[in-house]
Amino acid sequence: METTPPPDISFADLQAKIRTMYFDKDVARGVDGTFMWFMEEVGELASALRGTDKENLAEEFADVIAWLATIANVAGVDLSAALIAKYGHGCPGCGRLACTCPAEEKP
Amino acid sequence: METTPPPDISFADLQAKIRTMYFDKDVARGVDGTFMWFMEEVGELASALRGTDKENLAEEFADVIAWLATIANVAGVDLSAALIAKYGHGCPGCGRLACTCPAEEKP
User: Residues of A numbered 54-83 whose beta carbons fall under 8 angstroms of chain B's beta carbons: which are they?
Assistant: First the structure.
């Protein structure tokens, strides 16, 4: 039997979707105002990570990423390109696919 | 002439890549310790947003997303599924593809 792959979404797709939904408001609010909303969601994520509600936890991750995409849109950053440049060829610290950097070092 | 589409990466791909690179360390560090690293990157993103170095700004976005993916791996959250559930069908507030929620309301 064939299995259906789980649904997936790319960073370019998400960024375009968030742009369609919110770009006019995002630009009016600007980077600083948008960052405040982002930080509020980061706080909610911290709270959800301490809790036991897995559905709420998933929602808070989605909200944090949506606000990051919003800031990226206002700041003119392509998230896919940024991720591929930094993490597309292994750990930026040691260059390995499975990181061998010392545990106390970033990342 | 054909044009090459810009490179793209999906959330499932990124989460799998980050898992391969860092999962053993991430689990040893746990959610709380990982969240501290994430917050440090959020601070660096704030700093980069105030600056003029676009390359550094893109890197800081990549780092914040990488640490979010790390926390999601440790917490057992599927980011693609979370995003599709919350933002896959339009604005979660008003349900429209281009949001018509009042500007002072979330999101």
Answer: 54, 57-59, 61-68, 71-72, 75-83
Q: How far apart are CA B44 and CA B14, in angstroms?
A: 21
Distance from CA of A82 to the nearest CA of B (A): 5
**pLDDT over threshold 80, residue A26:** yes
| CATH number of the domain bearing residue B57 | 1.10.287.1080
Residue A65 maps to a domain: yes
Q: How far is CA B31 from the centre of its chain?
A: 16
Write out the two tokens for A2.
């064939």
> Which of A54, A82, A88 minimises the CB distance to B61?
A82
pTM score, whole prediction: 0.93
Query: How high is the pLDDT of residue A100?
Result: 92
Residue B68: which of A31, A64, A90 has the nearest Cβ?
A64
Residue A95 lies in a domain: no
Mean pLDDT, residues A80-91 taken together: 94
Residue A87 falls within a domain, yes or no?
no
Beta strands in A1-107 (DSSP E): none
